[in-house]
Specification:
Layout lengths: L2 E3 L7 H4 L12 H7 L1 H7 L8 H21 L10 E8 L17 E8 L4 H11 L5 H11 L3 H5 L10 H7 L4 H11 L3 H37 L3 E4 L5 H17 L1 H4 L6 E5 L3 E2 L5 E4 L4 H31 L4 E2 L11 H17 L13 E5 L6 E2 L5 E4 L4 H39 L4 E4 L5 H11 L11 E5 L3 E2 L5 E4 L10
Parallel strand pairs: 1-3, 4-5, 5-7, 8-9, 9-11, 12-13, 13-15
Antiparallel strand pairs: 2-3, 6-7, 10-11, 14-15
Helix pairs in contact: 10-11, 13-14, 15-16
Protein name: T-cell activation inhibitor, mitochondrial isoform X1
Pfam families: DUF4460 (PF14687), DUF4461 (PF14688)
InterPro entries: DUF4460, DUF4461, TCAIM
């Protein structure tokens, strides 16, 4: 069950926050990170290795929270749009008190809240309160730092603080690094893990086969009926959960077929919220009811119009930047709706128009860039695309792109070569181990996948025959029998 919390409003701060809040000074970036340590400890994805769906939800929400906190610290910001976040919170000593939302048998509960704050301090307090975590250390932190000389306070770094172990001994706080180290020490070898979990995975896989066939049938029927390009899932939901979602969509199609046909040619993605994604996919929020889905399908023609305007805006930006292609890479960027992405592009385009940069036409053709709202300076990704902040200084942008253009071309060439090698190794591994399915999580890079496959091909692993194998960042047997192994597995301790 989700805990729904309303956005923070200034008029009710005294009711939500302690009496000392209104007289407190602002937090720095480093203090905010330190103050949120209990929260990060409670939601850290590394502790959800056996629960891949909850792990993915937390990973995505942490990315969006990071963007929100970064934007709060940008000079001259006016107001941020309300940001809805969902976290699965582990039971800890701080949040296990009576009277709170009960934890599941797995030891965590879901918390859903909306941030609409204007400073770091109120944001930190609201997050901790929403997750039923103590805020006593905030008052101590605020009082201690306020008493320091001004010069000392202005020299504080925004880097995360790693406290000495004596700090946790004397304060009684839990050391998150110690628990993570314990998790690492408990990691087993690939062969021993397969020996221990192979039989249970085979049993789960066999039990899931009827449902898998039902899922394929439902997906094919709906894709044909609505003339869809594809149906996907953003999260690692189980087969039964996916079938239930398709049945729900099928019932809606029985009563509103003509409305749903507005999605002709589209890809439908079941995810956390409804709308249209930055790349034009129709997003169906699994927590929404049929009424919300119907309204979305009715609005699709207006979304298509916005999508055409967005593509025109990308072309205009490309023209101003010498032909560089503006792309949106789902695996590497926060999940944005079409409206959010259009707003981001519009801000960047207006800055370019006001400060026109003299790029030679078509001089940067063949290169790619992604636009970010959570960065201050441009950078070049190892895959060859540029990471460009929407508020980047145009003069600095021109110098950076021109000096890195050749390196970007070299990186893109290596990326294409690496992709060919990766596909060949995937095929070879699938054939050698007689795998039914071999895939990777989006967060696993091609470099990591190539390294993993090369070492797998040197092994003899009979348990993999006929299995579904996923390359991930942790060991896990999914509820339907898929085997997840970390890309950096080793016949010994996992590579750090």
């Amino acid at each position: 069950m989700f805990c729904h919390l309303r956005p923070v409003r200034r008029s009710c701060l005294e009711k939500i926050f302690p009496h000392w809040f209104l007289s407190s000074r602002a937090l720095s970036g480093a203090e905010a990170v330190n103050a949120l340590r209990p929260f990060y400890f409670a939601v850290h994805p590394d502790f959800f290795g056996q629960h891949p769906r909850e792990r993915e939800v937390n990973e995505n929400s942490l990315k969006r929270l990071s963007v929100y906190l970064e934007n709060l610290q940008k000079p001259g910001f006016k107001s941020l749009k309300p940001t809805q976040l969902t976290f699965y919170v582990r039971e800890t000593e701080q949040n296990s008190s009576e009277g709170q939302e009960p934890f599941s048998t797995s030891g965590f509960r879901a918390v859903k809240f909306t941030l609409h704050t204007r400073d770091l301090l109120s944001t930190v307090l609201y997050i901790l309160n929403s997750c039923s975590l103590s805020i006593e250390h905030i008052q101590s932190l605020n009082t201690n730092v306020r008493s320091q000389p001004l010069k000392e306070a202005t020299r504080m770094s925004d880097r995360p603080i790693k406290w000495d172990k004596s700090y946790y001994y004397f304060t009684g706080f839990k050391d998150p690094h110690e628990d993570l180290e314990q998790v690492s020490r408990m990691e087993t070898t690939l062969t021993s893990w397969l020996d221990s979990n192979g039989k249970s995975a085979i049993k789960k896989l066999r039990n899931s086969l009827p449902l898998r066939r039902e899922l394929d049938r439902l997906k094919d029927d709906l894709s044909q009926q609505l003339q869809l390009s594809d149906i996907r899932w953003q999260r690692s939901w189980g087969i039964a959960h996916r079938c239930s979602q398709l049945h729900s969509l099928g019932r809606l199609a029985q009563h509103n077929l003509e409305t749903l046909k507005n999605a002709k040619g589209c890809t439908i993605i079941f995810t956390d919220r409804s709308g249209m994604s930055a790349v034009g996919h129709v997003m169906l929020g699994t927590m929404d009811v049929h009424h919300h889905w119907t309204k979305l399908f009715e609005r699709l023609p207006s979304y298509f119009d916005l999508q055409r305007r967005l593509m025109l805006l990308e072309d205009q930006i490309s023209y101003l930047l010498g032909g560089i292609q503006v792309v949106y890479i789902e695996e590497l960027q926060p999940v944005l709706t079409l409206e959010e992405y259009y707003s981001l592009l519009d801000v960047f385009y207006n800055r370019l128009v006001k400060n026109r940069i003299p790029f030679h036409p078509r001089s940067l053709r063949g290169l790619q860039m992604i636009l970010n709202s959570d960065r201050y300076a441009p950078s070049l990704h190892e895959l060859g695309h540029f990471n460009i902040p929407s508020l980047c200084d145009p003069a600095n942008l021109q110098w950076f792109i021109l000096t890195k253009a050749q390196q970007a071309r070299d990186n893109m060439k290596r990326k294409e070569e690496l992709k060919v090698i990766e596909n060949e190794l995937i095929q070879a591994s699938t054939k050698k181990f007689s795998l039914e399915k071999f895939y990777k999580e989006p967060s696993v890079s091609s470099i990591q996948m190539v390294d993993c496959c090369k070492r797998l091909l040197e092994q003899s692993l009979p348990y993999l025959q006929g299995m579904h194998l996923c390359i991930s960042h942790f060991y896990s047997v999914l509820q339907d029998g898929d085997l997840c192994i970390p890309w950096n597995w080793k016949d010994g301790e996992a590579i750090k």
